[in-house]
Amino acid sequence: MMESPGHGDPGVDAFDQAVTQSHMTLAGWEQGTHRAGNPFVSHYIYIVDYRTKSPTMSLYGMLCEQFHELSIDASKSQLVDAVTALADLANEHDTVAVDEHAALLFGYFKSTRTYALWLAKAGARDRFHAVINMYPNGVGACVRPFVAFPDGAVMSLQKLVRDSATVSKLDRQNHPEWFQPQ
What are the domain boundaries of the chain? Predict the structure, then answer.
């Protein structure tokens, strides 16, 4: 299960909690829109859900140490299920379910070519940031993961909106089938 430092975990001191919250606030993330640990020792996945009229955004973090130890064999369909579940749980307080789905996402990313390419170029202290655009596709969803390059310790909401919209526009041009009702 994924730990969420900065949210009352006994192993995280008040200073780390204050630093984490300060960086989240500076980047535009409101309390409750993220489950993230100390931004200097965590990897992040950002989800942008386009299934609603106004896209919703959420952020999930995992300690680098946990991420490197994580071994989950997840298929593309399991990723879609996990992303959908996380998006649907975004306003819920079921932290166990959120953590389980988020761990599946992190495990999935570790098995992708995108992560392998990032890892080959990453420095020892670099942290992995990825975005998942979630598009409506018939009764389900189409997910589009891509690597992100944050503008700070945590990607600002402004940059996330801009990068996600750019990728979404390209996807609509290059893959219109992803947006067709099935």
Answer: 14-176
| CA neighbor of 49 nearest in space, from 101, 94, 6, 86 | 86
Grade residue 133 by pLDDT with cuts at 50, 70 and 90: very high
Q: How much is the CA Rg of the chain, to the nearest whole Å?
A: 16
Alpha carbon distance 86, 74 (integer Å)? 15
* pLDDT, averaged across the chain: 80
Please report, rounded to a whole number, the percentage of residues in the chain having pLDDT higher than 90: 19
How would you label 81-100 residue by residue, b for 16+ Cβ within 10 Å and e otherwise?
bbbbbbbebbeeeeeeebbe
Neighbour-count burial of 139, counting CB atoms closer than 10 A to its CB (0-12 exposed, 13-18 middle, 19+ buried): exposed
For 139-167, what is each residue's pLDDT tens digit? 778 888 899 999 888 899 999 999 999 99
CB-based burial, 54-75: b 16+ in 10 Å, e otherwise: ebebbbbbbbbebbeebeeebe
For 148, other C-beta atoms within 10 Å of its C-beta total 19
